[in-house]
Specification:
UDP N-Acetylglucosamine Acyltransferase, domain 1, about 30% strand, mainly beta, binds coenzyme A, eight-stranded parallel sheet
């Protein structure tokens, strides 16, 4: 079924092959100067599947072939490339970029100015602070760089402080907390608090002031 959006701004553009609903009609808001179905590849499955209500704020550019859970929202000037699997209740902050072939779980919060490259996996309930940069090419522009791309894995409830940089293929453990400005070069264990460049473990989140709440989340 083709989408009948309740609030599509007159300056927004939706490719006629791109936008589909799963199930019944629901409210969808597409803000001024936004585009849905950009770069469409008609030889692939071009559709953007919205599973429920969503809100794309002005100047959001959403490419073709994305699967998007309920209650999705973007800030302003967000770019999302093709063929991503995005869960329910995800929020993508202004100026953030999600490249193609990522998997992002339910309730993930992505702050402003965040960069998420191809093949990144972010599990449910993770939180990425402002200007977090994830990377996927260990040797940029190497002859086989494109074949070697390896996105980071951010596990459930992990939190990345502002301006964190995560190197290709690195895993950030469940509930781990990465301090502002860290450069994470190696896998981070579950529950670790990591700071610095290169990132080093300085604590365990279960020792922090809000430890009791962390335990509650685990139950
Ligand atoms: C990592 C963090 C949680 C540590 O907080 P804490 O447990 O209260 O730790 P402390 O402030 O007592 O610092 C412990 C040590 O780590 C150092 N440190 C703390 N944060 C650091 C960071 N981001 N980078 C480098 N070193 C850091 C401190 O200087 C201190 O070093 P010292 O023992 O030599 O004096 C916190 O500093 C942090 O960076 N939080 C993320 C903030 C953020 O980005 N929020 C986003 C919302 S906008």
């Amino acid at each position: 079924m083709t989408a009948e959006f309740s609030g599509i701004h007159p300056t927004a553009w939706v490719h006629p092959l791109a936008a589909c609903l799963r199930g019944e009609t629901f409210p969808g808001e597409i803000g001024a100067y936004s585009q849905v179905g950009e770069g469409i590849d008609v030889d692939a499955d071009p559709q953007v599947y919205f599973a429920g209500a969503f809100r794309l704020r002005s100047h959001t550019v959403l490419y073709w072939g994305n699967s998007i859970g309920v209650d999705f929202q973007t800030g302003h000037h967000v770019l999302i490339r093709e063929q991503n699997e995005l869960g329910a209740s995800i929020s993508v902050g202004s100026g953030s970029i999600i490249e193609h072939h990522t998997k992002i779980g339910d309730r993930v919060r992505i702050h402003s100015g965040v960069f998420i490259p191809e093949f990144t996996v972010i599990e449910a309930d993770a939180w990425l602070g402002p200007k977090v940069t994830l990377t996927n090419a260990r040797y940029p522009k190497a002859p086989d760089a494109k074949e070697q791309l390896k996105g980071p894995l951010i596990k459930t409830y992990a939190k990345l402080g502002a301006n964190t940089t995560v190197l290709p293929g690195v895993t950030i453990g469940a509930h781990a907390l990465v301090g502002a400005g860290s450069v994470v070069t190696k896998d981070v264990p579950d529950y670790a608090v990591v700071v610095g460049n290169p990132g080093r473990v300085i604590n365990d989140v279960r020792q922090l002031a809000y430890a009791e709440q962390i335990q509650t989340l685990n139950q």
